[in-house]
Amino acid sequence: MRYVKAVGLLVLIVGGLVGIKFSQISMLMQAGKEGAKQGAPPESVSTAVVAEDTWEQILPAVGSVVAAKGVAVSSEAPGVVTAIHFESGALVKAGQVLVELDSSVERAQLASAMARRELAQLSAGRSRQLAQQSVISRSQLDGDEAQLKTSRADLSALQAQIERKTVRAPFSGRLGIRAVNLGQYVNPGTTLTTLESLEVVYVDFSVPQQELADVTPKTPVRVSLSGESGPPFVGVIAAVDPAVDVTTRSVKLRASIPNPKEQLRPGMFVRVAVVLPQRQKVVAAPATAVVHASYGDSVFVVEPQKDASGAPVLGPDGQPAKMARQQFVRVGAARGDFVALLDGVKAGQELVTAGAFKLRNGSGIAIHNEVQSSFSLTPTPGNR
């Protein structure tokens, strides 16, 4: 009898546990069914309404900076360097003395030539007076006059030789690294340094032959350094090469760019944007709204959420719920924080601009625009 009571008590305990577990499982199954009816919880996103804008047409290219004036400063005459009047990288004016070569022999010859010229002047003056008095013949006067001209020519030649041994800056600009030392013997044509005028520089670049009709001289050009976030350098097309490259079928152009702060240096790689005369109407959207994938670019358009019958669905707050519909688009040029959507989206539609990466087609969303990034066509982010 005692064993029967123990077994009965054990059965009651096991039955109670089974009933409790069954009740818990039933509650979980019911909650799952309710959750399935309500769908996944809405994702928190930020949105913006896109608008139509008129953008200028840009022809992009890459180019190289070339000095508008640039020479290798060299000596015209041989000699030993006796004086250097510049430092590497210095700014110089046109006509400023840079290097002097030894001209002691020429200066001695110059003193002798000056003495001969003075003697020739006296002889010619005396002969003129005597010729007027018919004391000497005309031939003797002509010989003295010729001697005077010869002495003057010899003097001018020596002065020119001495001047050639003084190297001057041909124009104002910035010098390069010094390539000569005191006491060094230089031959004609030996490079002493380089001189570049950087107030205005040229940028050489090429464009396809199809664009030749739109890139006439005086067309505006914007140049920017690769990796730099500052404002671009503004200039105009100065020259268009009349010939087309037979290999690339492109045309070489040269732009003139003011460079007052000397930020552009010869040899630099730059990005060029030729501003074409045409204008294009586009739907401008923040770049963060575009989701890039291997199968295409897309955006998420905000629309009212509806049930199977087409009736609006209400959210937990009693307001109409929103959903995100994936729409494939054709992306055009970029301007600052915006991109041009050429197809797929119309002006006035609301797009998801933050949180699009976690959405799928038809996902429920909760819009929170209290804290939103500011978008600009000309952003100027600060350095960190």
Explain what this protein looks like in three dimensions.
The two termini are 86 Å apart. The protein has 4 domains: 40-55 and 281-367, conserved putative lor/sdh protein from methanococcus maripaludis s2 fold (Beta Barrel), CATH 2.40.420.20; 59-67 and 200-277, Efflux pump adaptor protein, beta barrel domain (Elongation Factor Tu (Ef-tu), domain 3, Beta Barrel); 76-101 and 167-189, OB fold (Dihydrolipoamide Acetyltransferase, E2P) (Beta Barrel), CATH 2.40.50; 103-164, Helix Hairpins. The chain contains 3 helices and 20 strands. The protein is an alpha+beta fold and 384 residues long. The model has no long low-confidence stretch (mean pLDDT 83).
Helix coverage percent of residues? Answer: 10-25%
CATH topology title of the largest domain: conserved putative lor/sdh protein from methanococcus maripaludis s2 fold
Count of distinct structural domains = 4
The overall pLDDT average reads 83
Per DSSP E runs of 2 or more residues, the count of β-strands stands at 20
Amount of beta strand = 35-45%
> Judging by the overall fold, what is the CATH architecture of the largest domain?
Beta Barrel
User: What summary fits the major beta sheet?
Assistant: 6 strands, mixed
Give the CATH level 1 class of the largest domain: Mainly Beta
Strands ordered across the widest β-sheet? 14-15-16-20-1-19
Helical stretch tally: 3
3D shape: elongated
